[in-house]
Amino acid sequence: MYRIGVDLGGTNIKAGIMDESYKILIKDSVPTGAERGFEAVVKDMAELVLNLMQRKSISEKDVIGVGIGSPGSIDPAKGVVTYSNNLDWNDAPLADELMKMLPFKVKVSNDANCATLGEVKAGAATNVDNVVLLTLGTGVGGGIVSEGKILEGGHAGGMELGHTMLLRGGAACTCGRKGCLEAYASATALIRQTKEAAKENPESKIHEICGNDLSKVNGKTAFLAAQMDDETGKKVVSEYIGYLGDGIVDFINVFRPDVVLLSGGICNEGKNLTDPVNEFVQKNCYATANNFIPKVVTAILGNDAGLIGAAALVD
């Protein structure tokens, strides 16, 4: 039997067919074109799924179902996207609409939830029951798997880990509040922090790294400067580790998972990121001498995590 996963993004719709061990047999993508409206996007999604099945000569009787990972707030019981800024959708009945076009059951969850489940099924947390994952990208997404299942919360809009409070009255967040973890631990935040520090320190090697053009600062810049023994770069990285670490410590204190996973472009720093984060966590978690402290490691599935996790929604 086969499972089909769909990773719905603001830019592209990705879909893949998986065998029972969650090995991706075929995958492809098409532009989302969300500006065309909900119905057009769902139609393209259905056509992509059917096209993949045809290319692999898979009949509908051999498919368990389709799972979809979508950005935004999701009501998984109803298969409804209650709100997605990326897609400009409100109360969109995604599962019901897709089931009009496909002869399978359809399940929907948040894309970060699906990425977490994907790492549990076939990635860095295989055979682990309790996982917290943070995605460090334009924003900070998050997902939690508890006892092997996605922890959804009682209603749509739960598990928004990036919008927990880090500093009351702090930096503005995209959600409208100030001081959220996203405003300090996202790649966007790190870039802002690097630029601000460079402006205050014209002698910093950050200027050299970006060719004296701060518009070229990216998520790697401060780490590169730190590796060049630049004091400004080291300070930026240290403060960023503290912001991220504070968020992780809070999630560990609340959920006490078996492992914490980090994903996103910043994770390309590898141990330059995870070693100091683990040191911070070991020092700051509640009752470290008496309680289990999970390791913080990087996810390994990359862009396939959401596809695999979405497929795992159906059983």
Low-confidence stretches: none
Alpha-carbon distance between the termini? Answer: 10 Å
Coarse structural class? alpha/beta
Number of helices: 10
Query: What gyration radius follows from the Cα positions, in whole Å?
Result: 20 Å
Strand neighbour order, sheet with most strands:
3-2-1-4-8
Morphology: globular
How many E-type strands? 13
Question: Main beta sheet: strand number and arrangement?
Answer: 5 strands, mixed
* Rounded average pLDDT: 94
Helix-strand sequence:
EEEHEEEEHEHEEEHHHHHEHEH
**Proportion of strand residues:** 15-25%
* Helix content estimate: 25-40%
What would you note in describing this structure?
- The protein has 315 residues and is an alpha/beta fold.
- The chain is built from ten helices and 13 strands.
- The protein has helices at 38-55, 94-99, 111-122, 182-185, 187-200, 205-209, 221-227, 231-255, 271-284, 304-311; strands at 2-8, 12-18, 24-31, 63-70, 73-75, 80-84, 89-92, 106-110, 131-136, 140-146, 149-150, 259-263, 295-298.
- It has a five-stranded mixed beta sheet. A five-stranded mixed beta sheet has the order 11-10-9-12-13, with helices on both faces. Strands 5-6-7 form a three-stranded antiparallel beta sheet.
- Strand 2 (12-18) and strand 3 form a beta hairpin.
- Helix 3 packs across helix 10 (304-311).
- It is globular and about 65 Å long.
